Amino acid sequence: MKLPFLFLYFFLHIVCADLQVGFYSSTCPQAESIIQAVVKRRFNGDRSVTAALLRMHFHDCFVRGCDASILIDTSEQSRSEKTAGSNLTVRGYELIDEAKAALEAQCPSVVSCADIVTVATRDAVVLAGGPSYKIPTGRRDGIVSNPQDVNLPGPGSSVPQALETFTAKGLTLSEMVTLLGAHTVGVSHCSFFQDRLSNFQGTGSPDPSMDPRLLEKLLQTCRSHSGQDPTVFLDKRTPFVFDNKFYNQVLLKRAVLRIDQELGLDSSSSAMVSSLASDGIKFGRQFANAMVKLGGVEVLIGNAGEIRKNCRVFNQRS
Fold it and tell me: Is 59 a catalytic residue?
């Protein structure tokens, strides 16, 4: 059993060769503990912050790589990634601001916003009961944020459609199935799965793959708030606990989003879902490894990009 583990460690070391665990050990030794303290305070008052940070992290890394471009505010001069349709419901920006302010007070212009997002996401996962893992740091912040660059797999995607986006970032099918397990702590607005309730793929009928009891509950929730767009938990059993129960719901055809249910129906991924549903330890281990790999996607290092003083705006150019 030691050989596969050592090989995986070596592989991840190569993937993140330009990042380093403990990157700030000499320039800002308390960096990760400062971030952790901010996340813990927020988590103690709002456990949904884990899902919020996971979504922010994913949406950032899948555009221009993990460069904190999603944090940039829109200005009169230009629109940013925040204005893209898929990012309108992303939240948690205030937590990143708080962590950045604390870090700037301790060690100005040293810790990147990109590293704050990545480390904060890990800390939130741990607080929700998920795996603890070391995060290589040393990312720099991007200097471009364009809504036209945002092209994320949608909630109604099939497995092949979603996989195109993941493979474009160097991630495998297994890593996609594992990373989508983050939906164990997520929520979704009714508008993201409305077609499954009444007009699936233009048939005029509900999605036949959805459990009838779940269909009834979702219809009741979504129709009872006329003119609004309410949210529902993606894992109704343990919605605030980071565990593998999400996969059990997929096997029972109780997944809310089409992409999640497709994981259990598609022949290429169904066996992976069954495996993760039966082994929570395996899920935690695979998720940690996949998050480290995701966190190394197209990162800026060295003198590339910048270290923002304010995560919401680019530094002023002289």
Answer: yes
Q: Three-state DSSP class for 84?
A: coil
| CA-to-CA separations, 127 to 37, 92, 283, in angstroms, rounded | 11, 16, 17
Three-state helix/strand/coil letters over 183-197: HHHCEEEHHHCHHHH
- Residues annotated within the binding site for heme b are 183
- What CATH code would you report for 17-152? 1.10.520.10
Q: Which two tokens stand for residue 301?
A: 């290092």
In whole angstroms, give the CA distance from residue 68 to residue 56. Answer: 9
**Distance (Å, rounded) from C-alpha 68 to C-alpha 74?**
14
Instruction: Please state, in angstroms and rounded to a whole number, the distance separating the CA atoms of residues 118 and 288.
Output: 12
Q: Do the two domains 17-152 and 159-289 of this chain adopt the same fold?
A: no
> Which residues define the annotated binding site for Ca(2+)?
60, 63, 65, 67, 69, 81, 184, 235, 238, 243
* CATH number assigned to the domain with residue range 159-289, chosen from the 4 options 1.10.420.10, 1.20.1250.20, 1.10.3720.10, 3.30.590.10: 1.10.420.10
Q: Give whole-number Cα distances, 236 to 187, 188, 197, 240, 241, in Å.
A: 10, 12, 17, 9, 11
| 153-197 pLDDT, tens digit each | 899 999 999 999 999 999 999 999 999 999 999 999 999 999 999
Q: Which residues of 153-166 are buried (b: 16+ CB within 10 A; e: fewer)?
A: bebbbebeebbebb
Give the model confidence (pLDDT) of 110-165 as tens digits.
Answer: 999 999 999 999 999 999 999 999 999 999 999 999 999 999 989 999 999 999 99
Contact 272, 260 (CB under 8 A): no
Q: Which of 13, 57, 59, 189 is catalytic?
A: 59
Comparing CA positions, the residue from 159, 183, 172 lying closest to residue 58 is: 183
